[in-house]
């Protein structure tokens, strides 16, 4: 039997200019800038990573900052919101912080009783901060003036908007996730990662939602497995279920396989190993441009065409 998939590994989105992206996620959201590298398929573009202090699985939001990309808008068949976990009693701090920065979040109670703040990032991508008791157990540091006790710990989960939720839900059940019903248009699936991060996926049925992919769009959602053996088991299982799964891709900090689930969302299954300290010490994460070995001989050319952060 294939091992249950426990939680999200990372989420990757498309942003506008990299400096604006860096300012928002490091200085406004208080996340640690954990890795500055390039899109391995397009080394003329950055791939920027932000997460908690230890860059643990389930905490990393990553971006392809395409400077001239069109503005995106949500569409059925995409991940449409990123939910972050913050400790209890932190909503008030964040509401005041956003107000001081002229950001106007909406404070609300979610469909499962979650106390949350909803807002959009600088590119229009929907994000929310959710108070989560398990988040307080995760040690991290805040950046950009965010106190450690209120800092984002990692992902609470993500929302997928779909024309129909049925077959996507069946796949999450195959992953070993549990279904929690709200109503016909919204269902939540939950998992039990050992660190408590990235344990929810919300499925929203909205077949009429029609937007376009671009700046502020989520590119793919990555689920985590511990190692290469488990990943290969899942590749075999998914192939047997009829999915078109890519060969294993070496992403330097993890190995990845990709496939598009029946609702249209691009899914990735990524390994926890080797991790983000492969080429930098923990205390130095994000300080210098890191390149995979096959691009190292082109470092000068690559550095010259990348904009300053």
Account of the protein in words:
This protein is of the alpha+beta class and 309 residues long. It has a single domain (8-305), classed as 2,3-Dihydroxybiphenyl 1,2-Dioxygenase, domain 1 (Roll), CATH 3.10.180.10. The protein has five helices and 16 strands. The chain has helices at residues 18-28, 91-100, 166-175, 228-240, 299-305, and strands at residues 8-15, 32-39, 42-51, 60-65, 78-86, 106-109, 115-120, 126-131, 154-162, 178-183, 186-190, 200-205, 218-225, 249-250, 254-260, 266-274. Strands 2-3-4-1-13-16-15-14 form an eight-stranded mixed beta sheet. Strands 6-7-8-5-9-12-11-10 form an eight-stranded mixed beta sheet, with helices on one face. A hairpin with a 5-residue loop joins strand 15 and strand 16 (266-274). The longest helix is centred in the last third of the chain and has 13 residues, at 228-240. The chain is globular, with a radius of gyration of 18 Å. The protein starts with 7 loop residues before the first strand and ends with a helix. The mean pLDDT is 96.
Give the class from helix and strand content and strand pairing. alpha+beta
Helix and strand succession?
Answer: EHEEEEHEEEEHEEEEHEEEH
CATH architecture: Roll
The biggest sheet amounts to: 8 strands, mixed
The number of domains is 1
Strand arrangement across the biggest beta sheet: 2-3-4-1-13-16-15-14
* Helix-residue proportion: 10-25%
The first-to-last residue Cα distance is 46 Å
Described by the principal axes of the CA atoms, the overall outline is: globular
Total helices: the number is 5
What is the mean pLDDT? 96
Low-confidence stretches: none
Strand elements, count: 16
